[in-house]
Amino acid sequence: MSIEFHAEARPVRHRAQASPAEAKEEALARLRTIIEGGHVQAAGRLPPERVLAEQMGVSRRAVRHALDLLEAEGRITRQQGRGTLICAARDSAVDLGAELAKLTNPVDTLEARMAIEPTLARLAALRGTQSDFDKLFESAEASRLAKDPISYENADAAFHRRIAAASRNPVLVTIFEALLLVASDRSWRHGRETAHCINNQARYAVAHRKIAAAISERNPKAAEEAMRAHLGIVQQQLIEHAFPRPQGA
Q1: How is domain 88-242 classified at the CATH fold level?
Q2: Whole-angstrom Cα distance, residue 91 to residue 89?
Q3: What is the C-alpha separation between 44 and 75, in angstroms, rounded?
Q4: Where in the chain is the domain with CATH 1.20.120.530?
Q5: If you average pLDDT over residues 55-78, what whole number do you get?
Q6: pLDDT in tens, 36-53
Q7: CATH number of 20-86
Q8: By CB neighbour count within 10 A (0-12 exposed, 13-18 middle, 19+ buried), where does 196 fall?
Q9: pLDDT averaged over every residue in the chain
Q10: How far apart are CA 150 and CA 201, in angstroms?
Q11: What contacts 65, CB < 8 A, 6 or more positions away?
Q12: pLDDT at position 9
């Protein structure tokens, strides 16, 4: 199995020439080129880490780091027995998200997320692997340690994406990705930053940990309820920002 690179792709740097940070950047850039250009011979499946590392001239650790980032972005999924697959669902989600953005607002979008994400959490508890669970806890911790609203948003999105991926339901994943794309609209940033202020961030990070624990314990009912409770709190913050109560009311 091999990969065909664009002719204009950046030249490969050998391990001896690149620092670990440069190797990670190189691996990530090359993998993005592969995914976006469709240069994969095996029906959307990437080669093993060892093969990618040899072809790119970087370490397997650099490749693994790049794959972790791409998985958190929803660009790939890694499934035991099937390997690393490019998520066609994301391409469909971009088109769907563009249409939804014309029709909706942050409050409506969160209502839609509340309709499907508790189900995704329940399915993740039933279908997730130990690798899924480990990554969930990593993302929950990243949301706790985020230093600013943008960093928190990235960690938050990665956490919810990992749950969606663990559900193993491509239809729900496509809808979820579309909603997440709509929610990331720049014009809604002020409302999101209000909902994700530092005090709320700490509260949400605790909720993330609770959701991850329920999923890893394979408790679908608790996972579903924890997700619904978490999104309910976020919804309340958004509503209070969008429709502030008159002073003295």
Answers
A1: Four Helix Bundle (Hemerythrin (Met), subunit A) (1.20.120)
A2: 6
A3: 11
A4: 88-242
A5: 83
A6: 766 565 457 888 999 999
A7: 1.10.10.10
A8: buried
A9: 79
A10: 11
A11: 24, 27, 28
A12: 41
95: number of CA atoms within 13 Å, CB side?
A: 4
Mapping DSSP onto H, E and C, the string for 21-41 reads HHHHHHHHHHHHHHHHHCCCC
Q: Is 78 helix (H, G, I), strand (E, B) or coil?
A: strand
The residue type found at 92 is S
Residue 33 CA to residue 10 CA, distance in Å, equals 10
**Phi and psi at residue 80, in whole multiples of 5°?**
-60, 130
Q: What is the DSSP letter of 154?
A: H
Task: Pull the structure tokens for residue 242.
Answer: 């969008």
Of 178 and 142, which is predicted with more confidence?
Answer: 142
Q: Which range, of 104-108, 116-120, 157-161, 220-224, averages the lowest pLDDT?
A: 104-108
Question: For 85-131, what is each residue's pLDDT tens digit?
Answer: 777 655 555 565 566 666 667 778 889 999 999 999 999 999 998 98
